[in-house]
């Protein structure tokens, strides 16, 4: 073990393939179903929404998928990303544990999202598509797709969840600086948005609603496609570049992770870090515990139902077998921690059902306390999302302090909080409450399952 | 020349000394004077404001000053910083020039400022100081000192220029997340602030006023010292870590800069990049043109007077020989580009007088246009300050396109704009005007010179 603070890879060590975990699983995940026929959807069903290359990646059985040179060229603007040893946090906690974090905040928009936005924009541009539509919640994904669209000369139109649109004006400016158009969602631009506004004129929105709006617009125009920032197999595939790099960096460090902890909203950041390590675990080369952490306000893995549900509120998408809170679920707008999607990636849900990963939910005060502690020791103010993982890291590191175990903990610090600072202001001013999802709200939302 | 996008150094290549350009200059810079006696100030005059170690660095004749191990430990959180080749911008401009940028936005607060905040906090803590006071304009410096103070267990109190305090709420939250206390300036906390508010209750403030407030508070308490984020010799000294790294990275690239371009407010970012290259130039090993770029709204080098003036508005500091707009100067609050200090670093002013560097002023619309162009090609949204340097880079690259010259241009991208996005919103909405300093305002401000 060296005494280094960070482990950097050379550009020449940038992975040239993404890793597809599906062929390595003991059984394949259940397929998406057509909502009318309840038969597995085929490529033709998805063609109005996605380019052929991404549809192929969605169902591929190849273990490794080549990353195009044009995508690598853009990745090189910030990749390989650093792996840090959090020595100052370890000292502050007085733990014998070694805490590592893989930092994705070095990307142009400050999160892991460009890892998939860039290939999605590339494949669309390569197939002659002119415009992309998407949804965004906290704004990380919309920013990433706006950046990626600028890079490949595509127009980009974003529906941003109203609560976030109003609370996070800087995100909109970032998207516009990259040349995108941003609408609050629900909007009057789409039938799906108008239907919601008719029933609830003051709706604060949800990712499910925003997805309906973006999907509706894409399906209506042959030159437009839709891009999703998480949940689907091809998105998780692209994010595995994180875990592949981290494997190389652990080799550099001469260490092996005992515990891997990541936050889960749709599941792409977590899957991106964890799947390459899961491959090594399934092959018997390492034996880490792999733990997903979600907000108590939006606990799809720990309290949702494993069932077929729509990916969006209006029911425009195929049915996905996933842990879901119900596609009508509207997260409490006071929840500041991101990770607000009603469902969990089908692939991750399947892996959870197989018992290959653990999950827990954490309240937002504990998360922001961990975020402040991290900022004051490591210098980086974490985005609200990864504070969930940091809270679980702190729990684990303090358990190690009690037991004396010298575990190596790895977490994905998937972004910084520069554009989410008002949430920290609320926490520091004592204006933040914990916001566990009430049983009655969950029951009502689950009642809407198809 | 390789085809790489970025040049990274290993942690072991982090410079272990700062470079002091003074002994290499053909003549020494004029000393600071006591405003009463007009005699050079001695260490005792500065002791109420600064720790002994920094006073010693302010006047040292050593060419190289060791960086303490505790400072290197913190530098390693983000240093060495990357040097990028801006290939995508070059292609967009169609220039034969090679454009390189040294990116300091990877620091915890997103700018070069921690390079000096960290050693300043370290030396104060080492001498038993309990609290630091400072001023901040756009907020980059205040954030950096808040971070550095958290790192070494110091309290930190920041006076933030009112115009910026109101326009940039995120900066205040960042400082508070690191544990600092933030006041708008002018404030009622100090005699200097109250004096300004009495004459101008709606004052939007200036760096000169905020410095007066922070200095007054530090001088009144034996456990408190003051920290300045630019202008002084020791600050420029600490920033030379930028240029020392860039020299190593140019060697990696197998290239040599023909033109070095940096933005100047107080001068520390510019000096930090340029001085190590100036050493090599004075030694006859390279021959780059070195060019300072300042805002047309605050043009101290190009339109200020080279004279002894106060560093602050209330006249609490020693007199410094520098290019100054007059210490009463209040920048137009519509100026969004930062770099709003009335004076230029005495060391840089002296070097300019010696004819060793060039200077030009640029209007803010040209700057933000360069910033947007950079964002859409390179992915990083530049802080308003370095858009000045980018505008001059674009000018140079387009001249190369006309002449066919294959020059290598190096610039300091000293920070990102995540907390300055409202300025981009104003530019994109066409609400930004150019704001050259009117001759009459300059004349009035210069009339106040001591």
UniProtKB/TrEMBL annotation, chains A, B:
Required cofactor names: pyridoxal 5'-phosphate
Keyword Amino-acid biosynthesis in annotation: yes
Domain spans labelled Tryptophan synthase beta chain-like PALP: 77-415
Keyword terms of this UniProt record: Amino-acid biosynthesis, Aromatic amino acid biosynthesis, Lyase, Pyridoxal phosphate, Tryptophan biosynthesis
Residues annotated with N6-(pyridoxal phosphate)lysine modification: 113
EC id: 4.2.1.20
Stretch forming the signal peptide: none
Taxonomic superkingdom: Bacteria
Pathway(s) where this gene product acts: Amino-acid biosynthesis; L-tryptophan biosynthesis; L-tryptophan from chorismate: step 5/5
Pfam families in UniProt: PALP
Keyword match Thylakoid: no
Catalytic reaction equation(s): (1S,2R)-1-C-(indol-3-yl)glycerol 3-phosphate + L-serine = D-glyceraldehyde 3-phosphate + L-tryptophan + H2O
InterPro entries assigned to the protein according to its UniProt record, in alphabetical order: Trp_synth_b-like, Trp_synth_b_CS, Trp_synth_beta, Trp_synth_beta/beta-like, TrpB-like_PALP, TrpB-like_PALP_sf
Record's function text: The beta subunit is responsible for the synthesis of L-tryptophan from indole and L-serine.
UniProt subunit comment: Tetramer of two alpha and two beta chains.
Family designation: Belongs to the TrpB family.
UniProt cross-references to HAMAP family, sorted A to Z: Trp_synth_beta (MF_00133)
Protein name: Tryptophan synthase beta chain
